[in-house]
Amino acid sequence: MVRGNNFNSYQKQSSQTAVYDSVDLVIYPALGLFSEAGEVAGKVKKVLRDKGGNFLPEDKLEIADELGDVLWYIAAMCNDLNINMEDVAQNNLNKLNSRMARNVIKGSGDYR
Q: Which of 67, 110, 70, 66 is nearest to 91 (CA)?
């Protein structure tokens, strides 16, 4: 269980399980993030292909497990870059809320 129940607690606790060389800072978790995100996408693809998009409880559990791995790699990258996960989450909400208020939530471009 995540003590403190927030991203900062998760980030701190997950860092205790990081076992990669300092020369691989940032690049190791970046590659892991890409890999795990691909595993999430692969599981979703198979549900679409094999089950007509019907996500069964066991599919959801498997996807949730992979999403946990994605979260770990995000936390590792934040640690390596001295970025606070709580700030990342809040900044993202601020951006999305601003886009919603300006009626530009749809569309493309980072700076809309």
A: 110
Q: Among positive and negative, which fits the CA dihedral 97, 99, 103, 105?
A: negative
Dump pLDDT digits (tens) for 35-62: 999 999 999 999 999 999 999 999 999 9
Residue 29 located in a structural domain? yes
Burial of 73 (0-12, 13-18, 19+ CB in 10 A): buried
Of 76, 80, 9, give the one whose Cα is nearest residue 36. Answer: 76
- Domain region containing 97: 84-112
The per-residue pLDDT for range 73-107, each reduced to its tens digit, is 999 999 999 999 999 999 999 999 999 999 998 88
Let me know whether 41 and 73 are in one domain.
yes
Does the residue 16 lie in any domain? no
Contact 75/11 with Cβ under 8 angstroms?
yes
Secondary structure class of 31 (helix, strand, coil): helix
